[in-house]
Design goal:
Cytochrome Bc1 Complex, Chain D, domain 2; alpha+beta; four-stranded antiparallel beta sheet; binds heme C; about 20% helix
Length: about 425
Amino acid sequence: MLALDATKQVVAERILVPGVIELRHIAEAPPRLGEYLLVPFMRPKNLGPLIQVSQGWMMTHGMAVVRPALNAPVGEGQSKVTQVLLDDIDYYFAGNDGVAFTPDGRRAAVTSSDADTVSILDTAKLARRLQQGPAEELADRLDSAATFVVARLGTGHNPTSVVTSPDSRWAYVANRLDDSLTIVDMAQAKVAATLSLGGPKEITPLRRGEQLFHAAKYCFQGQFACGTCHPNSHLDGLAWNLETPQLGRDRVANRTLRGIRETAPYKWNGHNPDIATQCGPRIAKFLFRSEGFNTQELEALVTYVNNIPLAPNRHLAPDGQLTEAQERGKAIFYRKNTNDGRAVPIQSRCDTCHPAETHYTNRISTEVGSATKYDTSGLLDTPQLDRVYEDAPYLHNGEALTLEEIWTVFNNYDTHGITSDMGKEQLNDLIEFLKTL
Ligand code: HEC
Ligand code: HEC
């Protein structure tokens, strides 16, 4: 998190919340509670073999309680951060999202968007819990929530934001995939009403699929949903130890789900022929540790995944005209000769494996020398390159942090296209072109 000095317009402090991702909302405690902020988070254990889901603890959800160093000079402040978990010992509350205090400071509400739940917190009890034991220990205690959560209330599908009324009586939860509001009586900690916002009466398979994409109840103990690892139907930027029981082997970077309809086969190793196979039995067996989806549900989910659009391209002019640097990069992508006039063999040309007509993938598995000793096989499905600029980190194991590193760090022997003869400026141009795809 960044603390900004509004007067000087500079970053006053970078506040670290170790091990967590997806900080989406923040709420400031009313003054009578003392100065602190609540920031819901998710903490993934992505490098532990995911087959351990049945032992719990692959992903936990909680809140950072941040006491900001308000009056320290710029660059010298050190905010105090305590992590406290919102999950129960045997049930998890995936997709922590919105957060709000009642103005009287007595209660707070936190939505769990993938668990269709809003948790109502007693702030006095939370304060007491934070006094019990050192912060490092509290961060890993699954018995905290029971001490300060007053109620877990069911909402509509995918509750994201929550706000409270000025008189502290009500909280309004926006159910993103239901077009409805859940109205909570905060004193009684009960759902008072559900207000329809007049969305479409009929639920299309597309919408049903998106609801399922955000439904953690299909996973053992409700630990996570598809949307947990694929936020905004994209990727979380992490590498996961998905299927192997061996710690550290066959680690795979997450992959985007945007615009993948015509890019089969799936997965880095290209072993999954279609989205139904990827999302159905495999997910049930290897990720969710549950029965998974029934046939109709799977059909809806696949419809959704097949229709996730690509984001508009930020690097391409609206009329599609390339800049000079992008044009120079394009010429390098399609080049047939190196700088010193040697021919680039066909199998080493970028466009042989990444042809424009088919989303820049020939849909064939090849070795490009990127495997490490931790990989069982170096044979990898050529990835599509549409909007590749938003897919970092790169390569199957996520070891290349930027597009440049694919070649500056990992292509020492020209096994992934011929790039060793290129100057820095040529590589820059190539990257500028890749960003337009
Ligand atoms: C624990 C995190 C996690 C969860 C939960 C998860 N995924 Fe993934 N997903 C990944 C990772 C990591 C990969 C890359 C795996 C590989 O290539 O070996 C991936 C790959 C995929 C792919 C293949 C994309 C491609 O282009 O090859 C699809 C499709 C997919 N996920 C859909 C889903 C759906 C649908 C769900 C829910 C049913 C889901 N995922 C749940 C982490 C996750
Ligand atoms: C022989 C086929 C082949 C050639 C030639 C080739 N690539 Fe690749 N490319 C691949 C494969 C396979 C991968 C996946 C490697 C991995 O994940 O470890 C890949 C990965 C990439 C990625 C990373 C994508 C991601 O999402 O992580 C980019 C970008 C890329 N290639 C661009 C290029 C460019 C530019 C060239 C020409 C200089 C090129 N490739 C030449 C097969 C090829």
